[in-house]
């Protein structure tokens, strides 16, 4: 699944590819991707619209057009490709045609989503109160330390599960949470409300460090993520604990366990249960 850094990479590449381009036609091969309007309304609304900007909220892309916001989530396998006259793949579900090229939303698993909102009905900030963004917590770059601490203090789940909960803090997937807990020296099974505010600050600082590094390297390619242009992330070469055998701090063997059903890597020596 593309995580926050990969979505950031997709956003940056898409901006280069499509900003300023005008949609002349749209072909919809699988309409269940479109969630809050009909296939017909989606087409009629977006034809003749030009792309103005793209921002990211958690793992959602907010694509701004002349009169609409298109909110896109790639879920497990969604990808955007700028194409020309290449053959259409059976996984190209929505195709936006421009004068000389076309943008394809390709998704082998078909779990991706698109929501459409009209700009004269909703301002950008209103989007955060609407489906699907109303269920997304702020990401580590935007969340307030006190708010995060309050959420963590209120939970008796393992800290790993809390950091994966996109309603509490968005944008940290399985790989990144393992890295954050390793950097913070905290065992993934630590009960969240055993952590004090200094622990939470350390985790939040670690999350920002890990995400910034991943963004600068284009994310990871683990789990078959591939950005449009086929750019492969290089962050997987920098992982400290996730999928590793030996701890880079103490040379102990890295252990693999399951926490909340998710494969979890940690160092018994460097990460303590609080
Ligand atoms: Zn260690």
What does this entry look like structurally?
The protein is an alpha+beta fold and 274 residues long. It contains seven helices and ten strands. A hairpin with a 2-residue loop joins strand 3 (60-65) and strand 4 (68-73). Helix 1 (4-18) runs parallel beside helix 7 and helix 6 packs across helix 7 (197-216). The chain is elongated. The two termini are 30 Å apart. Mean pLDDT is 92; it is low at 222-227. It binds zinc ion (ZN).
Principal-axes shape call: elongated
Record the strand order, biggest sheet: 1-6-7-5
What is the name of the CATH superfamily of the largest domain?
MutM-like, N-terminal
Rounded to an integer in angstroms, the radius of gyration calculated over CA atoms is 20 Å
Report, as a whole number of angstroms, the end-to-end distance: 30 Å
CATH architecture of the largest domain: Alpha-Beta Barrel
Q: Tell me the fraction of residues in β-strands, as a range.
A: 15-25%
Topology pattern, helix = H, strand = E:
HEHEEEEEEEHHHHHEE
- Give the distinct bound molecules: zinc ion
- Per the CATH scheme, the topology name of the largest domain is N-terminal domain of MutM-like DNA repair proteins
Q: Find the structural class using helix and strand composition.
A: alpha+beta
Domain tally: 2
Low-confidence stretches: 222-227
Which CATH class of the largest domain applies here? Alpha Beta
Average residue-wise pLDDT = 92
Number of strands: 10
Assembly level: single chain
Please tally the helical runs, counting DSSP H or I stretches of 4 or more residues. 7
Instruction: Specify the biggest β-sheet.
Output: 4 strands, antiparallel
Tell me roughly what share of residues is in helical segments. 25-40%
């Amino acid at each position: 699944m593309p995580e926050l850094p990969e979505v950031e990479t997709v956003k940056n590449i898409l901006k280069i590819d499509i900003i300023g381009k005008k949609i002349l036609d749209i072909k919809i091969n699988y309409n269940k991707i479109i969630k809050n309007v009909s296939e017909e309304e989606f087409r009629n609304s977006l034809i003749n619209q030009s792309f103005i900007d793209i921002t990211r909220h958690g793992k959602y892309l907010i694509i701004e057009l002349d009169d609409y916001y298109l909110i896109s989530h790639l879920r497990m396998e969604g990808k955007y490709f700028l194409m020309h006259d290449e053959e259409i793949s059976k996984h190209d579900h929505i195709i936006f045609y421009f004068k000389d090229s076309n943008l394809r939303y390709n998704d082998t698993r078909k779990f991706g989503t698109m929501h459409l909102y009209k700009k004269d009905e909703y301002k950008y900030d209103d989007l955060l109160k609407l489906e699907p963004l109303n269920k997304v917590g702020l990401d580590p770059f935007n969340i307030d330390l006190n708010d995060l601490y309050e959420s963590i203090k209120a939970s008796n789940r393992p800290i790993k599960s809390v950091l994966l909960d996109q309603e509490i803090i968005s944008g940290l997937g399985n790989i990144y949470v393992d890295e954050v807990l390793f950097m913070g020296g905290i065992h993934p099974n630590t009960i969240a409300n055993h952590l004090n505010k200094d622990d939470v600050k350390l985790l939040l600082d670690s999350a920002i460090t890990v995400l910034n590094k991943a963004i600068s390297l284009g994310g990871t390619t683990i789990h078959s993520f591939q950005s449009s242009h086929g750019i492969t992330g290089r962050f997987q070469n920098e992982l400290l604990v996730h999928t590793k055998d030996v701890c880079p701090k103490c040379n102990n063997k890295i252990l693999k366990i399951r926490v909340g059903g998710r494969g979890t890597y940690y160092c018994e020596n460097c990460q303590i249960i609080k």
